[in-house]
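re: that chain from earlier
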Amino acid sequence: MAGAARPARTLLRLAPLWVPFLLLFVGGLGLAVAQSLGFGPGLAVSAPVGPGGLSASGGSPWAAYARLAEPRFVASFLLALKVALASSLAAVALGALLAYGVWRLPVGAQRWATVYRVPLVLPHIAVAFLVLVFWAKSGLVASLAHHAGWIDQPREFPSVLFGGHGAGVILAYVYKETTFVLLLALACLKRFNPDLARTAQMLGAGHARTFLRVVLPHMAPTLHAAFLILFLYTFGAFEIPYLIGDSSPAMPAVEAYNLYFQRDLALRPQAMAILVVLFLFSLAFIALYVRATAGQPSRERKL
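^ sequence. v structure.
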């Protein structure tokens, strides 16, 4: 009896953790699923019939999910996939290279290199403003290109922002996320034996080969985890895409926000369906990515 009561006491002590989790996360997820199926206050009303004879609510409970097959939503999810992949891969690559460069600096110089943490503490709205200041058609880069004679007028500068390809959002997240990867990779390199790199260079390996064959395998688990976090965060991000992203197609989170806060309640199931699909995609991506990377043998070497 005493052994059976022990897990119950442990569970009771952890109640401040799992009770808010159940109420907020699980409860919110359940509410989103219910609303996506058309159940909720004001949703079980007749709505205009959409393409294919399916109404947004009051008809088939899967009507909202069927509407996600429309070109508008497909383009939105493809844009999110492109932005998440491009920004996460670029941030991981740059973060790993910068971490290796900082790690090779003398100890005194590494203290000054802590300036790299500045983007990490900047709010997303500040990062969006910086991208807007630098890369808009009236921004600093366009002005410099005009004064250098590369373009006749600043308006001839390529449409980095609002060009339908998400380049501005990618730039913002690369700037914001590279610091995150650098911080994780540098912490990983603090546990790395520098004698391995010195031995490789004594045997004739250059800095590039030493990084690729000796240092990078040591950082690989950390970089995999960083990529997974950044990809999923960017795929469902809202702030930066809402501020400097494209309106058509918009990122899925922006589409869900616009649908949910429009006055027509019949559109809310579509917004909830987008969020549910984002959640399910995240679970599937985590499972597939972990399975794909778990089979890779560790190449960390020891003296």
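Confidence is low (pLDDT under 50) at residues 45-58, 299-303.
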